[in-house]
Amino acid sequence: MNVNFELYKVFYHAAKNLSFTRAAESLFVTQSSVSQSIKQLENQLDILLFIRNKRNMQLTKEGEMLFFHIAEAFDLIKAGERNIENTKTLGYGEVRIGASDTICRYFLLDYIKRFHADYPNIKINITNQPSMQTLEDIAGGKMDFGIVNLPDNMKGKGVNITEIKGFQEVAITTDAYAEKLPENPSIRDLKNHPLITLTPNTNTRRYLDAFFRGQKETLAPEFELESIDLIVDFVRIGLGVGFVMADAIPKDEKTVRILDLKETLPSRSIGIVTNKNSPLSIPTEHFMNVLIKGR
Questions:
Q1: How many angstroms separate the first and last alpha carbons of the chain?
Q2: Which one, of 75, 19, 1, 55, lies nearest residue 10 by Cα?
């Protein structure tokens, strides 16, 4: 049955008021228009909905049955509208974010703090995982957006990308270990020393592998770890040379220092990734605004 839902809207107001005149006033149409719509609905359903006489109007049994369901539907629609309005004005809802541990700690935490202060009723659901996995989940619609290390091959994967922050990758070691190296070591000088990197399933590691290949060298780490913090800890106890983002070195750090390499590691960037084909929810738009304003 293919009934125009506008007819149900007219029926709802007519049945609620038991008056075509008051229904017309509620809908800002003429009484004749209401009468015609009801007649059209009755013809399509092949039933009589109202019993009309000069003094009053009442629903038939079939009309009462239909009004029960239509009224329920309208109540659900109104509840949905209220929920949307609450989301817009009071900030209810949930935002699902994908980000690596490193990005969460050194970039996202401050924004989460600001967002929670502005929208305490919005639930923040963060999935910690490598950037490439986040990219796949965004493309598959499993989360609202991701904050990722941007690789060169992200275009054409069904996502929108907004670059929000640049950062520099650096080589680090201790003063004591630096005495084993030339004053300005090259990548080649490092190959005979223990190197400490992230695991191969991360964008950062893939980037480093490509950089070493560009220098006609092969990256063969002694230690492959799951987090930047662990790399800093391993370097701090003198186990070798690590590769991390410069922001990972605390300002008051006294043990670990950045090596002055002959080659400058290329700068990289962090970006927001969203699904091209999925509209952003209102809570997600709220969070995106906090990110963009804070740039």
A1: 53
A2: 19
Closest CA to 31 of 39, 40, 22: 22
pTM over 0.85: no
Write the CATH number for 290.
Answer: 3.40.190.290
Last residue of a domain, one of 89, 122, 149: 89
- Helices (H), strands (E): how many in the chain? 12, 11
Q: What is the pLDDT of residue 155?
A: 54
Q: Are residues 185 and 250 in the same domain?
A: yes
Give kind and range of the element (H or E) at residue 69: helix 61-89
Tens of pLDDT, residue by residue over 275-284, are 888 788 888 8
Decide: 265 and 169 in contact? Cβ < 8 Å: yes
DSSP percent split of the chain into helix, strand, coil, nearest 5: 45, 20, 30
Give the confidence band of 139 by pLDDT, cuts at 50, 70, 90.
Answer: confident
pLDDT at 128 over 90: no
For 139, the token pair is 């493309």
